[in-house]
């Protein structure tokens, strides 16, 4: 079984959309960000958007979207 933290760490190193997503969120000062909002803006799939969202939560760029 893959460790989620390790998968997220590897994804962050490999995904060129992490920095543009950070900038997009901070520039627009979103109150609510969702997987679907990331999907629509960057035109990516659900899984990729979900991993990016989890990484942003882990970095404290956004609050936990499940609260």
Automatic annotation (TrEMBL):
Record domain FtsK gamma: where: 11-66
Name of a matching Pfam family: FtsK_gamma
Domain of life of the organism encoding this protein: Bacteria
UniProt-recorded name of the protein: FtsK gamma domain-containing protein
Organism: Limnobaculum allomyrinae
């Amino acid at each position: 079984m893959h460790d989620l933290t390790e998968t997220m760490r590897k994804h962050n190193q490999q995904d060129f959309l992490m920095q543009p997503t950070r900038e997009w969120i901070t520039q627009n000062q979103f109150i609510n960000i969702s997987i679907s909002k990331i999907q629509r803006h960057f035109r990516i799939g659900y899984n990729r958007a979900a991993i990016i969202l989890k990484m942003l939560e882990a970095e404290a760029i956004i609050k936990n979207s499940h609260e």
